[in-house]
Amino acid sequence: MSFLKKIKSPVELVPILDGLRAEGKKIVLCHGAYDLYHCGHLYQFEQARGQGDILVVSVTTDRFVLKGPGRPVFSQNIRAKVLAALELVDFVTFCDTQDSTELIKLIKPDVYVKGTVCKDLAKDPSSRFSLEKRAVEDLGGRVFYSHEIPIHATPLLSHYIDPYPEEVLAFLDGFKKKFPLGEMARSLEKLKSLRVMVIGESIIDQYDFVQALGLSPKGGVVAMKYLNTELFAGGILACANHIANFCSNINLITTIGSRNSHEEFIANSLATNVRPLILTREGLSTIIKQRQIDPVYFRKYSETYVFDEVPLTKDEEGRLVELLRQGEINKMDLVLVNDYGHGLMTEKIVRFIAENAPFLSVSTQANSANRGLNTIDKYPKADFVCLDHFEASLALRDQWDLIRERPEILRAKLGAQVIAVTLGHRGSVVANKDQKFEIPIFSKRVIDTVGAGDTFYSLVAPCIRAGLPIELCGFIGNAAAALATTYLGNKTFINQHMLLGFIETLIG
At what angle do helices 452-465 and 470-484 cross, to 10 degrees? Predict the structure, then answer.
């Protein structure tokens, strides 16, 4: 048979395997991404053939190869063809889930083959492999652990195909000696028990996809053809959803407008462990940030803000204070404020939060709406401060890049325990009173930078609160932000599996 005929969908494969099983054939399954086929895989397949009669290899589909920007390098069809061309392999199929549990239940292998490294994972009942192993054994099959040649695709791809610059590779080489992957995974587990309150405006990111038709002969402007629209939960909603994937209990304090409230959309967009406490502002609109986007190259043509720049009234301030009390601000492990400068954080609210938050994390954003008037010095207290380079420069009244060289000056000025400053293409810097660390950027192929800063902040703040080393906090933030740039807007929220998969790619 032509090797391409070996490639079957799971549905196509089931009756074929049932027929072979009826003939007394024993089915063996190997599963992986196989983003770069190498002799280690060959060695495993040779051992797998010795465990049965029919060798099936399942390939993780592109959307579930969660190894970070630029991965997979080779599409699922190319990966499947390479494997199907091997004489050792009888069939190749696709696994369109994060683990192979559902595929195992479907094709019912007699033997499931994994490397010896998975023996330790089997001891963790929450690991993906533990679920796969249980599925195999529940069906009467067994797991065989193959002996491995110490070759892995990830470092080969990282170093030789679309490699990082030498300075980034040098940083990663030193970093992984200080923080092994297992230690990072255990560190992230410390975040689960944190009780977190997030405070800020709800923002709806509206992406209008358009096609440029050219210069209008009458108006002298670029004419656009409207194609379609997508809505994403942005602003503090995105922050809450990112944090909810790492911390168990989240109280969300936010505002929406009575006009164009998008209340149902917001409710459906929040993670199940986020408890929303919402102040509805009468007569105002929920903030909507419209962007006109080319869907082919993701080029942004323009932005339109739909919102009312009106600070809270005294009545609204009172109602918001009650929501803060209802959310038990004084009992939170972490109170995270993302101040977008659109009227929510009045002097009274800032003072109340500063006086009642046991550990306060603040980011004040400078954007085209607040014109740089929304600065961090409006807060009398903050334990952790996170700003971008421009926002930090405004706070320090410095235009000569002093913040990168001496972030402790700003930290001391603000009285914060820790400060983090994102530096765009130059990465980030984190500092406390004793240490300063510069973390390089890990982005390769950027689709959209919207939300990357909020992603960084949302991950770094709980890491700081959990007492992780500040260098590790900055690294985790940069890794999460790099992942965020590979998605359009806030379409996807970073979770632990995605993050650790990318970190494993980074440190090889």
Answer: 150
Q: What domains lie within the chain, and their CATH numbers?
A: 3-159 (3.40.50.620), 186-200+230-250+325-507 (3.40.1190.20)
The enclosing H or E element of 436 equals strand 436-439
Give residue-wise pLDDT tens across range 87-136. 889 999 999 988 889 999 999 999 999 988 787 777 777 678 888 999 99
Of the pLDDT bands very low, low, confident and very high (cuts 50, 70, 90), residue 160 is: very low
DSSP secondary structure string, 260-312?
A: T--HHHHHHHS-TTEEEEEEEEEEEEPEEEEEEE-TTT--EEEEEEE----PP
Element (H, E) at 204: strand 202-215
Backbone angles phi, psi at 507, to 5 degrees: -95, 0
Report how far residue 387's alpha carbon sits from residue 294's, in angstroms, rounded to the nearest whole number: 29
Measure the CA–CA gap between 378 and 318, rounded to whole angstroms: 20
Q: Which two tokens stand for residue 217?
A: 């002969």
**What's at 324, amino acid-wise?**
L
Exposure class string for 295-322: b at 16+ Cβ within 10 A, else e: eeeeeeeeeeeebeeeebeeebbebbbe
Pair type for strands 202-215 and 222-235: antiparallel
Give 253's contacts (C-beta < 8 A, 6+ positions apart). Answer: 197, 198, 199, 277, 279, 320, 323, 324, 327
Supply the pTM of this predicted model: 0.74
